[in-house]
Amino acid sequence: xxxxxxxxxxxxxxxxxxxxxxxxxxxxxxxxxxxxxxxxxxxxxxxxxxxxxxxxxxxxxxxxxxxxxxxxxxxxxxxxxxxxxxxxxxxxxxxxxxxxxxxxxxxxxxxxxxxxxxxxxxxxxxxxxxxxxxxxxxxxxxxxxxxxxxxxxxxxxxxxxxxxxxxxxxxxxxxxxxxxxxxxxxxxxxxxxxxxxxxxxxxxxxxxxxxxxxxxxxxxxxxxxxxxxxxxxxxxxxxxxxxxxxxxxxxxxxxxxxxxxxxxxxxxx
Length: 269
Known about the structure:
The protein has helices at about 40-45, 70-85, 100-110, 165-175, 190-200, 205-210, 230-235, 250-255, 255-265; strands at about 5, 10-15, 25-30, 50-55, 90-95, 115-120, 215-220, 240-245. By secondary structure, the chain is an alpha/beta fold. The radius of gyration is 17 Å and the shape is globular.
């Protein structure tokens, strides 16, 4: 697996497919997910004529974790380091879950130079529900803002795994490389990152973006209302959205054909 070294000296791994001279699509996976979670997108995107790069974010997959603070800003800087090291330009950035908000952390710190457009896969830009934002993580608000994610990711009790059917469950287990019935554990570094992720608000970054953006939601997301995609797109006149039916938070994994059709349709526009 090829690697780059981040600006703070951490080895970051990535997967690559397709023609190295083609227009690049960079895939950023979500929390606890490795680059391999994009297994259902790598070949279809390459066959469609793209150079495809999937990053193992620090502390994920085969990448190092580093000794510094574990924050969204650092994860955004790592994406910038990847784009710089590989001399990528005219890039489509695709981020799933936390990977989507890592992209907003990149844009906030470094701007959108070299970025063609951005695709966000089932990630609300503000996880904390408030009077002006009703599309956050279910049951997460000011009353429990500092404790809700203290031990990991709570189960809101919406669209449970048993409602997905065996095929969708098997795809998630395979793509996430989890054993059947496997329950994730969380390190102190992961919990630090999760807390920072949960308390950030990226709406102003979206509103100020001078590039197109495409927000994808799973109609049966376990974590938030699917309307978050349309609400996010409404923040910027150059943004659009789509909801994939019978799809959950792992939208690119549970319904890969429908997701790939939506993504490739957007890329061909």
